């Protein structure tokens, strides 16, 4: 659901583990970093350990690895999000809904919000969740829903 007056694009993602999520996010993060687009990762839990372990095992240049690791993988604060940002929300359905509602109430425009749901938590609600998003991010990249 693209919200026209604020130009907010909603993208959903479903993952089975932290590593799975991070592997799906890596190409997207790589692309957005190369395009110098701001990226905000808002997570209900600290993902620093898993992203550090994953980055140590993937074939990326050292600069890109550092850029990815320098993202705040343990922040739950949305107050510093600016216009023209990519916002990745990771957590329970309630956490994601709460943060999304707060983002919608803020005076921010031109956002891409990627809601990352743990598949096991929302398994029975996937069709409903997908219907409230414009696109899906999976291992093939971003696709229309």
Structural commentary:
The chain has 145 residues and is of the alpha/beta class. It is built from 6 helices and 6 strands; from the N terminus they run βαβααβαβααββ. The protein has a 6-stranded mixed sheet, with helices on both faces. The mean pLDDT is 93.
Question: What key attributes describe this structure?
Answer:
single chain, 145 residues, alpha/beta, 6 strands, 24% strand, globular
Give me a quick take on this structure.
The chain is α/β, with parallel strands linked by helices. The chain has helices at 18-34, 48-57, 62-69, 93-105, 119-122, 126-131; strands at 8-15, 39-43, 86-91, 111-118, 135-138, 141-144.
Low-pLDDT sequence parts: none
* SS element count, helices: 6
Number of strands: 6
Q: In terms of structural class, how would the helical and strand content be classed?
A: alpha/beta
Assembly context of the chains: single chain
C-alpha Rg (nearest Å)? 14 Å
Mind summarizing the main beta sheet? 6 strands, mixed
Taken as a percent bin, the fraction of beta residues is: 15-25%
Order of helices and strands: EHEHHEHEHHEE
Average pLDDT over all residues: 93
Question: Helical proportion?
Answer: 40-55%
Distance between the termini: 10 Å
Spatial arrangement of strands, main beta sheet: 2-3-4-1-5-6
Principal-axis shape: globular
Secondary structure layout plus pairing:
Layout: E1 8-15, H1 18-34, E2 39-43, H2 48-57, H3 62-69, E3 86-91, H4 93-105, E4 111-118, H5 119-122, H6 126-131, E5 135-138, E6 141-144
